[in-house]
Design brief:
The chain is an alpha+beta fold. It is 49% helix and 12% strand. The relative contact order is 0.13. The structure holds heme C (HEC).
Length: 245
C-alpha cells in the first residue's frame, strides 16, 4: 500500500522537498554555530581588561564560567538556550560539540589567563575562536568544520586564508554593494571531494575592533600586527561553516 502510494508521487517532488528541508535545517545549524562562537568571543572581549590585568590572578574564566556567560548571550541573541536543542538532532549534537570545545580551550589556557605579573597575554577573541575551531574540528571528526576567515586583504593568520570558494563568495556576494547587511550566504557545494553544505556568516567591524584593525594603516597594534586601516561597519570577517553530508 505504502509502496503504491509513493509510486504515485513523481520522484523529483520527493527529492526537491527533502533537499530544501535539508538546506533550511543546515542553514540553521550553520547560523547557530556562528552565533555560539560569537557569544564566546563576546565574553572574552568584555573580559579583556581583566584578562590583561597584571595584578589579578584568577580571572574567574574557567571553561564552565565562560560557557555559562556564552549561553546567556546566545539566549539573548537567538531566544534559545543552546542546551535546550534536542541532543539527538544534528544541531543539538554539533552545538554540544562546540560547547565542549569552548570548555576545553578555556580549561587548557588557565595558566596563561591567570598569570600574575603579565599584562597583555595574547588571549584575544580571534585567538580564542581559532583554538575553539581547531578543537571543534577534532571533536566533530570530519562531520563539520568552523573557520573564521575574511576578505583576503584583511587576513593576519595564514591559517585563516579563504579557500577558492570562500574568496569567490566574499567578493561576489558579501562585498557586493547590494548585499543585504548581515545576511548569510549558503550553498550546497562539494568540498574536498565530499558533498557538503556551506554557510558564510558575515561579521562587520565595530568600534572595539578598530583599536587593532583600524587606522592609521600600518601602525603596529598591541598584538604586534600592522593595522589594516579598516573603517567602522566594513566587512571584517566571515564565519565559514562546512557541514559534510
Ligand atoms: C587586540 C587586538 C584585536 C582586536 C580588538 C580585534 N582583533 Fe581581530 N585579530 C587580531 C589578531 C592578532 C588576529 C590574528 C589571530 C590569530 O593569531 O589567529 C585577528 C584575527 C581576526 C580575524 C581572523 C582572520 C585572521 O586574519 O586571522 C578576524 C575575522 C578578525 N580578527 C576580526 C575582528 C573583529 C570583527 C573584531 C571586533 C569585533 C576584532 N577582530 C577585534 C587582533 C584584534
Amino acid at each position: 500500500m505504502a509502496v503504491l502510494l509513493l509510486g504515485t508521487i513523481p520522484p523529483w517532488v520527493i527529492c526537491a522537498t527533502s533537499a530544501s528541508e535539508d538546506a533550511s535545517e543546515d542553514r540553521l545549524i550553520g547560523k547557530s554555530l556562528a552565533d555560539l562562537l560569537l557569544a564566546g568571543e563576546a565574553v572574552v572581549s568584555r573580559s579583556q581588561e581583566r584578562i590583561d590585568d597584571p595584578k589579578l590572578g584568577d580571572k574567574g574564566l574557567s571553561g564552565k564560567a565562560l560557557i555559562e556567560q556564552a549561553r546567556d548571550i546566545y539566549r539573548t541573541t537567538t531566544g534559545i538556550d543552546p542546551l535546550s536543542v534536542d541532543p539527538a538532532s544534528r544541531q543539538g549534537r554539533l552545538l554540544r560539540v562546540q560547547m565542549d570545545a569552548i570548555v576545553e580551550v578555556m580549561d587548557a589556557n588557565q595558566a596563561t589567563i591567570n598569570a600574575k605579573g603579565t599584562g597583555f597575554k595574547g588571549f584575544i577573541p580571534a585567538v580564542f575562536a581559532r583554538l575553539v575551531n581547531e578543537a571543534f574540528a577534532r571533536r566533530a571528526k570530519g562531520e563539520a568544520e568552523v573557520k573564521v576567515t575574511g576578505p583576503p586583504d584583511r587576513i593576519r593568520n595564514r591559517k585563516a586564508r579563504p579557500d577558492a570558494w570562500e574568496t569567490d563568495v566574499i567578493k561576489s556576494r558579501l562585498l557586493a554593494p547590494d548585499w543585504p547587511r548581515g545576511h548569510a550566504y549558503s550553498a550546497a557545494v562539494e568540498t574536498g571531494g565530499r558533498p557538503a553544505f556551506r554557510v558564510m556568516v558575515p561579521q562587520y567591524y565595530d568600534k572595539t575592533c578598530l583599536a587593532c584593525h583600524g587606522m592609521p594603516k600600518g601602525e603596529v597594534d598591541i598584538t604586534g600586527y600592522p593595522k589594516e586601516g579598516a573603517k567602522l561597519d566594513e566587512l571584517g570577517g566571515v564565519i565559514s561553516i562546512i557541514l559534510y553530508r
